[in-house]
Design goal:
Elements (H helix, E strand, L loop, with lengths): L3 H21 L5 H13 L4 H8 L3 H13 L3 E5 L6 E5 L1 H22 L4 H22 L1
Antiparallel strand pairs: 1-2
Helix pairs in contact: 2-4, 2-5, 3-4
Keywords: DNA-binding, Transcription, Transcription regulation
Protein name: MarR family winged helix-turn-helix transcriptional regulator
Pfam family, one: MarR_2
């Protein structure tokens, strides 16, 4: 199916822009939100885990985490190995997560309201499969 990725990219950019507008109210961007979302759902995490999950370079994750620390949303916690520190959300970070999650959920519901559940489930299942195929082809 030619043009599949073009269709995806035509959705991705306006969606990211909309999310950045929504998150600006909280002093965040989508890239900062991704790390908050990851830590909230995965628990205290090492930078290498975040980097691997999002398939981005560790220095980029380091910069994002530094910004989140400056905003008081994350903090370093000692890990089992003293050389490796983990990042976790602060109480303020958890509160911001919930406020943002509520706004993002409202956006999701409004954007997806008229799409049948079966179609949504197909799309929901499809994207992880495409990602896995892409990763396997690179290895």
């Amino acid at each position: 199916m030619q043009g599949f990725f073009q269709q995806f990219l035509r959705l991705y950019r306006p969606l990211t822009n909309k999310l950045n507008e929504l998150l600006a109210e909280f002093g965040l961007s989508y890239s900062l939100w991704q790390v908050i979302f990851y830590i909230k759902n995965m628990g205290p995490s090492q930078l290498s885990s975040i980097s691997a999950y999002f398939y981005i370079e560790r220095p980029s994750v380091t910069r994002v985490v530094q910004q989140l620390e400056e905003k008081g949303l994350v903090e370093h916690v000692p890990g089992q190995d003293k050389r490796q520190k983990s990042i976790q959300l602060t109480e303020h970070g958890v509160a911001i997560y919930h406020a943002c999650r509520e706004k993002i959920s409202e956006l999701e519901h409004s954007m997806l309201a008229d799409i049948p559940d079966e179609t949504l489930q197909t799309a929901f299942d499809l994207f992880p499969e495409i990602r896995q195929n892409l990763i396997e082809k690179e290895e």
